[in-house]
């Protein structure tokens, strides 16, 4: 069929043509926005899930919902080697600029921007006489007003962020709306900054201020937040984003195809769900390859079988391979053992189940390698920092990437 008309979009953070199976999450966020608009207390929101389940797409969609309600918004992507000061400052600057045209007191906006500038500039390391130590550190946040003094500029990120968020929420209250800050890859926020975010959200929830944080991260994000502040378990509303069920996966494939006057045979949909496992990124990847190989409508199971190797080859390079290449030989050995242990054998020795996305006890990994668990801690910790595995429960690890175990078992040792 015509590849130009191919409706599927297997891209990182790229919205699929049909956002299937996420109606509940969109409805929940609508309720959050409406409750805050009516002055009701509400919690910030955290989305968690494996890679490829569409967290970034959903985060962007939630932001669109906030914008449609005339909220101020800003989005950042956390990095493990970066403080939150500058990204948060940039996000809040964007959010307040969206609100400024509706504010009746320009002086009030300028006063907040002065606080925001002071907050942002505290991130610059200083050398002798208080001057920036390097040219690249002489960063300015693009705010024309002079930096304020005595507010959000103490240098303690927890104190400063509470004050900054409180002032931003006050600006939003003036125009009868709210501010939402969206943070992707939130598990990569440093411990000190996570603690500050929790403290700021805690303060805002207590006073009913119209500012919320919407984060997205890997499945261990709740554990990261809990390690920073014990009350974080009650502070946020957690939503686990998982694979699509069969109905939603079929909708993600069929709805875009129907708009192009193309249909699927039922056996083709059966095979596509088996291949993709219902993971949204894989649904798009297999759908795109199948469309390009199918000669005509309706698309058949034979078309899927012909196209599957191409989809799998693309995933092996772009989705799996790029991550595998980041691991050291010792880390690859650790992951290969994880992949082997996810195979569940029957009494006769044959494989009866492939729990490729299940958690594996670290003690079993050590036993399989003939090593003491403590000696494997560096490899495990490095893999967690690289975002290749996570520890959802004490003493276990699992892959952050769906079907990664299956991929690893096809790689030469």
CATH class of the largest domain: Alpha Beta
Low-confidence stretches: 125-133, 345-353
Briefly note the structural class of the backbone: alpha/beta
* Rg (CA only): 24 Å
Strand segment count = 10
Organism: Micromonospora lupini str. Lupac 08
InterPro entries: AAA_16 (IPR041664), Cyt_c-like_dom (IPR009056), P-loop_NTPase (IPR027417)
Region (Disordered): 1-20
GO molecular function, one term: electron transfer activity
Describe the structure.
- The chain is of the alpha/beta class and 413 residues long.
- It contains 16 helices and 10 strands.
- It has 3 domains: 23-240, 3-Layer(aba) Sandwich (Rossmann fold); 244-324, Helicase, Ruva Protein, domain 3 (Orthogonal Bundle), CATH 1.10.8; 329-408, Winged helix-like DNA-binding domain superfamily/Winged helix DNA-binding domain (Arc Repressor Mutant, subunit A, Orthogonal Bundle).
- A 5-stranded parallel sheet has the order 2-3-4-1-5, with helices on both faces.
- The two termini are 39 Å apart.
- The relative contact order is 0.13.
Topology:
Blueprint: H1 23-37, E1 44-48, H2 55-68, E2 72-77, H3 85-99, H4 106-121, H5 157-174, E3 179-184, H6 191-207, E4 211-217, H7 221-228, H8 232-235, E5 236-240, H9 246-259, H10 266-276, H11 280-293, H12 301-324, H13 329-341, E6 343-345, E7 351-354, E8 360-361, H14 362-369, H15 377-385, E9 389-390, E10 396-399, H16 404-408
Parallel strand pairs: 1-4, 1-5, 2-3, 3-4
Antiparallel strand pairs: 6-7, 8-10, 9-10
Keywords: Heme, Iron, Metal-binding
Pfam families: AAA_16
Region (Disordered): 1-20
């Amino acid at each position: 069929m015509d590849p130009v008309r191919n409706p599927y979009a297997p891209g990182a953070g790229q919205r699929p043509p049909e956002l299937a199976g996420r109606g509940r999450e969109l409805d929940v966020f609508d309720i959050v926005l409406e409750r805050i608009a009516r002055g009701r207390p509400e919690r910030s929101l955290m989305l968690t899930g494996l890679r490829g389940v569409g967290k970034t797409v959903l985060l962007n969609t939630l932001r669109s919902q906030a914008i449609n309600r005339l909220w101020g918004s800003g989005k950042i992507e956390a990095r493990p080697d970066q403080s939150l000061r500058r990204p948060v400052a940039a996000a809040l600057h964007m959010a307040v600029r969206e609100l400024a045209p509706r504010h009746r007191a320009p002086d009030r906006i300028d006063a907040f921007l002065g606080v925001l500038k002071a907050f942002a500039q505290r991130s610059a390391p200083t050398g002798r006489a208080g001057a920036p130590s390097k040219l690249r550190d002489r960063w300015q946040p693009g705010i024309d007003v002079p930096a304020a003094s005595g507010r959000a500029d103490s240098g303690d990120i927890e104190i400063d962020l509470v004050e900054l968020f409180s002032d931003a929420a006050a600006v939003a209250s003036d125009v009868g709306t709210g501010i939402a800050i969206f943070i992707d890859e939130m598990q990569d926020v440093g411990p000190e900054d996570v603690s500050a975010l929790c403290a700021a959200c805690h303060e805002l929830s207590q006073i009913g201020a119209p500012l919320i944080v919407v984060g997205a991260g890997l499945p261990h994000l709740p554990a990261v937040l809990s390690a920073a502040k014990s009350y974080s378990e009650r502070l946020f509303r957690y939503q686990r984003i998982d694979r699509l069920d069969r109905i939603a996966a079929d909708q993600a494939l069929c709805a875009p195809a129907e708009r192009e006057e193309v249909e699927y045979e039922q056996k083709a949909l059966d095979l596509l769900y088996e291949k993709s496992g219902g993971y949204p990124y894989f649904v798009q990847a297999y759908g795109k390859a199948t469309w390009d190989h199918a000669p005509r409508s309706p698309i058949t199971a034979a078309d899927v079988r012909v196209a599957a190797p191409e989809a799998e080859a693309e995933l092996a390079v772009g989705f799996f391979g790029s991550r595998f290449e980041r691991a050291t030989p010792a880390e690859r050995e650790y992951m290969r053992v994880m992949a082997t242990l996810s195979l569940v054998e029957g009494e006769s020795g044959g494989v009866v189940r492939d729990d490729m996305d299940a958690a594996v006890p670290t003690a079993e990994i050590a036993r399989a390698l003939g090593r003491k668990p403590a000696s494997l801690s560096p490899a495990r910790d490095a893999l967690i920092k690289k975002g290749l595995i996570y520890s959802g429960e004490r003493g276990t690890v699992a892959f952050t990437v769906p079907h990664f175990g299956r991929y690893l078992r096809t790689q030469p040792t």
